[in-house]
């Protein structure tokens, strides 16, 4: 059985900060007498459920089209629920207890609870989530075998850091030279609630193959027992 973890893209999709909203522009419509229905989609590469390629914050990182098909498929996913964490951020101490010394998980799915307000309060959802700390990012990159990270909020960094032109967590997770030893794809704004209590077999995260670009909306879904 498969479960979708992707939020549908619409003109009501929550956006980060002052980013433009999604816009669907009718080009042809049968209701107007045209032969078919065709729509122009105005999207950011980071609208809705999306994948960050290392190039997003790392000028030397690979672009979304250079990821291999293997990078889309995760056969050893680990879902963690960190709603009971003591602080307002997601720290190393909130993640590390879920890993063993020989842990071979290839995808970490982090449910923070932020997504529970996505529909009712999209503004707060995009600005007042629980980002990762630098220590958490270093643990993921340096001390695990993870090939990907997915989360139920829209940005791994603190919103105020992004607005100030800083991106310490992105820099580590996306492998920026002098900061991190490797980069992994990030899948943000993921609907993880349907996975709670389920036994996950595999996860698939499929972006559009956009040549030379920094990311893409993605279709992410899980196979469960």
Percent of residues in β-strands: 15-25%
Largest sheet, in brief, is: 9 strands, mixed
Overall pLDDT: 97
Low-confidence stretches: none
Number of helices: 5
Kindly report the name of the CATH homologous superfamily.
Answer: Putative cyclase
Task: Assign the structural class, choosing from mainly alpha, mainly beta, alpha/beta, alpha+beta, or little secondary structure.
Answer: alpha/beta
CATH class: Alpha Beta
Shape: globular
Please tell me the CATH architecture by its name.
Answer: 3-Layer(bba) Sandwich
SSE pattern: EEEEEEHEHHEHHEEE
| CATH fold type | Glucose Oxidase, domain 1
What is the β-strand count? 11
Query: Helix content range of the residues, please?
Result: 10-25%
Terminal CA distance reads: 7 Å
Domains, number: 1
Radius of gyration: 18 Å
Secondary-structure topology with pairs:
Blueprint: E1 2-4, E2 23-28, E3 38-42, E4 50-52, E5 73-74, E6 77-81, H1 92-95, E7 107-111, H2 122-127, H3 134-143, E8 148-151, H4 159-163, H5 168-173, E9 186-188, E10 200-207, E11 215-224
Can you tell me about this structure?
The protein is of the alpha/beta class and 225 residues long. The protein has one domain: Putative cyclase (Glucose Oxidase, domain 1, 3-Layer(bba) Sandwich), CATH 3.50.30. It is 14% helix and 24% strand. The protein has 5 helices and 11 strands. The chain has helices at residues 92-95, 122-127, 134-143, 159-163, 168-173, and strands at 2-4, 23-28, 38-42, 50-52, 73-74, 77-81, 107-111, 148-151, 186-188, 200-207, 215-224. Strands 1, 4, 5, 6, 7, 8, 9, 10 and 11 form a 9-stranded mixed sheet that branches. β10 (200-207) and β11 form a beta hairpin. It is globular. The protein starts with a strand and ends with a strand. The model has no long low-confidence stretch (mean pLDDT 97).
